[in-house]
Amino acid sequence: MKKTVWKWGGRLLLALGVLVLLYQAWIAVHVWWWIDHNPASSSFMDDRLEVMQDRNPDAELQHRWVSYRKISDNLKQALIASEDAKFVDHEGFDWDGIQKAYEKNLKKGKIVAGGSTISQQLAKNLFLSTKRTPWRKAEEVVITLMLEGMMDKQRIFEIYLNVIEWGNGVFGAEAAARHYYQVSAAQLTPYQAAKLAAMVPNPRYYDKHREARGLLRKTDIILSRMDDVEIP
């Protein structure tokens, strides 16, 4: 009886291992394809559309892909200044940033800061659900390594700029520029770019509260840091 249990248990573990490897291969193929093909959507975009259509079956996302050169350098500088100052130098993970976020969260007794890089954020947006689980965090690490291993920094940043959320159903730099300022992503001023970057941590809230004191304060901080960052 025990031998049978062990036998079937071993087979189950083997099957699970094969499924995990197949899933990793599926992700790797997508990352490889996106080196020179643009993703039409992301896991997070699909999740948000589903939520929106539960309330309104006719709901649609605001999203339009634009190339890297058609996005203002102001927005690129603002996002790096706000989200990942060491983006061009690290290999996917900012260990100093992670340590500082951990210490800040420990001091506050709750999660008030994150140490995720742009590459990690892109990994989550492209493939993962919004649920926080140990499995998701481990998978995020694997996908981040794939992105950094197969794509250059400019491509990672280009995809990020085109898929991140900027409001209720608003995704990507072009849609955000038109939604908030009625201009193209190429025409964003430094202040407009800084304000969009300040919205990234909580975009649906700031979509409704565009003059929130905290948002305006963070906008000024980002604006003061933009000239000091390097963009790919």
**Beta-strand percentage range:** under 5%
DSSP summary: helix tally: 11
Tally the beta strands. Answer: 3
Strand order of the largest sheet: 1-3-2
Could you tell me the radius of gyration in angstroms?
A: 20 Å
Helix and strand content put the structural class at mainly alpha
CATH top level of the largest domain is Mainly Alpha
Main β-sheet description: 3 strands, mixed
| CATH architecture label of the largest domain | Orthogonal Bundle
Q: Any idea how many domains?
A: 2
Q: Looking at the structure, what is the overall shape?
A: globular
In helices, the fraction of residues equals: 55-70%
Q: Give the rounded overall mean pLDDT.
A: 89
- Which fold does the CATH topology of the largest domain refer to? Penicillin binding protein transpeptidase fold
Spell out the key features of this protein:
globular, 2 domains, 232 residues, Penicillin binding protein transpeptidase fold, mainly alpha, 3 strands, 11 helices
Question: What features would you describe in this structure?
Answer:
By secondary structure, the chain is mostly helical. The chain is built from eleven helices and three strands, in the order ααβαααααββαααα. The chain has helices spanning 2-33, 43-55, 73-83, 95-108, 118-127, 134-150, 153-163, 173-181, 190-199, 203-208, 213-225, and strands at 62-63, 165-167, 170-171. Strands 1-3-2 form a three-stranded mixed beta sheet. Helix 3 (73-83) packs parallel to helix 9 and helix 9 (190-199) packs across helix 11 (213-225). The chain starts with a helix and ends in a 7-residue tail after the last helix.
